[in-house]
Amino acid sequence: MGRVSPTVSAMSSLTEKPPTPGSSLHVESNPTVVDTSDKRLHELGYQSEFKREMSLFGVLGVSFCAIGILTGMSSAFQAGLFSGGPLGLFWGWNICSVFMLLIALSLAEICSAYPTMGGLYFLGWVYSIAMIFTGTSGNLSAALYLSSIIELYRSKPLTRVEIAAIAWATNILSGIINTFGTKAIGRMSSFNMWWTLGGTLVLVVTLLVVTPVKNDAKFVFTNYQNFTGWSSRGFVVLLGFLQAVYTLEGCETAAQLAEETTRAEILAPLAIVFSIVGSYVIGIAYLVTLLFTLQSPTSIQTTAFAIPIAQLYFDALKENRRLVVMCLFVVGLSQFMAAITAFTASSRLLYALARDNAAGRSGVKGSLLELNRFQAPWVGVWASVLVGCIVSCAYIGSTIAFNAILSSAAISVMLSYLQPIIIRVFWPSALNEKGPFSLGAWSWTINVACFMFTLFICVLFILPTAHPVTAQNMNYAIVAVGTLVMVVICGWFIWGRGTFRGSIVSTSDGPGKPNERSPPGNEDPEATAEAEYVGECDGV
Known about the structure:
Blueprint lengths: L7 H6 L22 H8 L12 H12 L1 H7 L1 H6 L2 H29 L11 H27 L8 H20 L1 H30 L6 H6 L10 H16 L4 H4 L7 H30 L3 H5 L7 H8 L4 H35 L22 H20 L1 H28 L16 H19 L15 H23 L4 E2 L7 E2 L10 H14 L2
Antiparallel strand pairs: 1-2
Helix pairs in contact: 3-9, 3-13, 3-16, 4-11, 4-16, 6-11, 6-13, 6-19, 7-8, 7-16, 7-17, 7-18, 8-16, 8-17, 9-13, 9-16, 16-17, 17-18, 18-19, 18-20
């Protein structure tokens, strides 16, 4: 999802001003008591414009929902199965989970220090677009689950146009739900937590009880499969790691709701970390069950179902259509809710961009800063839906082009993790402010490990997954990501460089004014160099 690092110069040069009568700092029933999160927001140069209606359970549910453990594991299962088989799937899940937890710890520390709607990056066009693509991908997957259910009862598969039409409907429904604001999203996310827990239990029990022939432990933990054409065993297993990374992306979504969460500097970081922990536990139970009940990898490769995991259910459940429908419905609904949270994140990020004059004019009717009566940034929501529907049209013409666009979202997520981590590793003094959630002396070491793993995964994501490489099996993600990055960079030099000046003070002291900086000639050269580097990253 392409996140960008927090602005350093703006952080260090903020001038604290006492609240004035026009300031919109959130005040409790006792007017002398100010919510600590709103106070911190004011220190960062922003006014509180959203109701803080998210509790720990709610914001944890959002991150947990965004990860979508059942959906990621199911939708990408065949990718890992064909690249390393059970060996790569099981050990890749355990190894990647450790590093994704380290990334979550690093991002949580940044979120605790800068609990704003812009999240870990304050601003970031790459991340915003990646979130829109992620929501689009999720809604298409939901359409594929529904298509697979329909295909169980009809003689021929759905056409691309029919599947795209279902995807458009899910995109629009995602927008409608997001229009009802934080409270609706919080309730949906809380429901999704229980749905995932209960659904995992139902899937595990059903598969283990009904499956006639189960694999032994040797198959589950050591069996190697290779459908890629590559001869290098190690490289093939590493390709299978991508399934685990793809599944565990999304923990940072809690940061995008920081301005709608009570005690955000504490609860949002906790949500980021514990969503990974919870997802690992549920994921390992579900993954091991799938591997024990897998009947035939070849059957999954040659399936006629819209989504390959449906073939695993169909084979394992002895072609019992009702049980297959139940499994597909459990995962499909979870997939749809995960897509909703992606549009939740993208709309908040677009709002954060507009608030700092990095996305159009903020003072006109219908701008990205306009909130509806539910305090939802509805323009950003429906902009995400519109782009999602347009991208879904590509599925009709070419699945290769569509998959390239959506795979770029997965890479952009890792690139987004990489950007603030780079700052933490090479310019540690740039983010010298600490929040209640701090890694202490372990911070730099953890960030170095995160940097190395994330860089490695980003390279792995763009390598060809099949050999020999042809026009049909080429990994076009590098083209999509390269195009996205070039568009954003060109936008920065053509337009953004002249309009964006770091975070903009939106308090009553002067909406839309740049944060105060040191007078020319009085800056520390080293600090200025760091600030200029990070400031340019913020506009990307």
